[in-house]
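Lecture notes, unit on binding sites. The following record was shown on slide 14. It pairs a sequence with magnesium ion.
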Amino acid sequence: MPPPQFWKPGAAAPGSSLDRETEAEGSLLPSTSRNAHLSLEAQRQRLPIYKHREKLLYCVEKYRVVIVVGQTGSGKSTQIPQYLHEAGWTKENHVVACTQPRRVAATSVATRVAEEVGSVLGDEVGYSIRFEELSSPTRTRIKYMTDGMLFRETMMDPLLSRYSVIMIDEAHERGAYTDLLLGLLKKIMRKRPELRVIISSATIDAEDFLEYFNSNADGTDRTKDDAIIVSLEGRMFPVEVCYLKDPPVDYVEAAVQTVFNIHMKEPPGDILVFLTGREEIDGALQTVADRIQTISKAAPKLLPLPLYATLPPEEQDLIFEPPPRDTRKIIFSTNIAEASVTIDGIKYVVDSGFVKMKTFNPRNGMDVLSVTPCSLASANQRAGRAGRTSAGKCFRLYPSSVIPTRNPYSPMPISTPPELTRSDISVYLLQLKALGIDNLAKFDFMSPPPSEMMVRALEFWYCLKAIDEEGRLTRPLGVRMAEVPLDPMMAAILLNSQEFRCGEEILTIAAMTQVQNVFNMSDGGNKAMLSELERRKFTAEEGDHLTLLNAYNAFTRYGQKDKSWCGNHRINHKALSRAMAIRKQLKKYLDRFGIKVESCQGDAKRLRRCLVSGYFKNAARMMPDGTYRSARENAVLHVHPSSVMFTRQPSTGWVIFHEVIETTKSFMRDLTVVEEEWLVELAPHFYTFKGGGLKKH
Ligand code: CDP
Ligand code: MG
């Protein structure tokens, strides 16, 4: 039976900039204001987890691994580290670590916990996310961090000896670094019997973690177990789930219609709508704004709000505030509201059934961010958000036949496949090698990556000269690449910049590719036109990387201390300031490695050649019809509308690009014009010349 048409992702207008969901910016989310009249201590005691405090502490004493399952909002992330701290697990300079899959979750939970503990953020309670550390090496006792940061820490301290307890939060999401950490922790635990590990997970996956960690595998004598599941049966109200009879043609439109139906027919209560990304959310808000005019003046008011990771903090505040009287709050959110962020007062959930996810696409040989059906586990989690404060309703914008337990042919998976099994693993592979884990086949992955992906990753690293023929890390290049906190391609470019004598400029470009929304381009209509005109002032014929460089240089000269300059030129002050901070940190790496940082003195060719030395894999050629073909897989690619190359043609016919985003088409983002010969010259193992065109080696 072919999958129903409906499961094609709804049309996403390729007009505005896309949210980079996978590398969410870390802006702080404020704590909720519910129960604000209660003291923080009283609020803590009202959380569902509080009843389980003693049991949890007992289990952590007795078992080496404790798997905690419980509804979102029950207090796992904020309370468990505090209980451990209070119970003495942080004595003798020990630290309790709690990892989060997302930056925004790490900073927001740390902020809340610092408040509860009565500490200044960065003192007793701190956090560490990429390019941002707010903690004290001597005083911090509870440390929230992204799982990637803790993984990196094992390069410096292989046994993670500072930590007495490590809590892996949201482990059911099975992000790549979560899985890698689980494997490493298993190894570390063999050498550190006193180390305790806490896994927080959704109920559905708890048994898998137990099986993975419990060394008492045959399970006949339960007293020999060294892992246990603790369930916090938090208060949950029933949620009635409704389905659409027929799949909608456009789920964004269907979501908006459903919102108005709820608003006109259902009792008071706020609405949470799950869409997949910023551009859909902005579209939905626009439609709601247009349609609000048509509803009766007598009807209660509507307050529509967006929620996504890159939202500016001022706008995030609004999400958590109770709406004005007689007003229904409607939040259009990405899956960030699924588990990481808790909003009180939600009674209705509208679920599109889709999520934006990074997956390896064998057609073009790279990871792409694409809209795909979410898993049943996600759908259930979303529905649960309606039942936190009272009985609720969840409206699923798909027919019940899509539920995989009812239909084995459904495109909806039961649970989300672990990231390591569905994405390009090259970045992780090098880091594992740097940890001395050379034989990846022997690493105890909870779900091993497909061997084809391992081979691909090895080949890629070999072409980047990071490993030798035997698969060993090269010195110093490979070792340094693993250390620099950038994606493999950018790391290579940065380290190669000495050879091309353009370190000054490459540092800037590397930093600028790490921040989002450099130009405020998202406004519609006339404003978009003005933004585009402003951006043209910085636009370089050579493409986006040099345009970013121009914007940065103008910013440091004119805009750094002058916000109105930034406003006038549609330059995002916050993003640029962050790029400056990142650049400074990257410079420290180069200094430490003794890499000479020179300026190319305006010689753009050197810069572009240096970019090719890392980006060679992401090369594409323009076709007569204006589309592109990837150099190696010959896959069809398009220029993303946000690129300065959208309205230009590469003089040489060739470009390299940073990444591919899939919506209605495969879009290349961040492009630079290059020469075909450079690809062969700088990546001889990846390409060879045959008959005038590039051929796969
Ligand atoms: O981790 P889990 O979902 O079980 O709950 P949590 O994140 O520890 O949140 C427990 C409660 O703390 C929430 O219901 C919020 O009321 C509050 N909280 C907050 O006010 N601000 C945050 N940034 C996080 C949690
Ligand atoms: Mg949590």
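Take-home: The mean pLDDT is 87.
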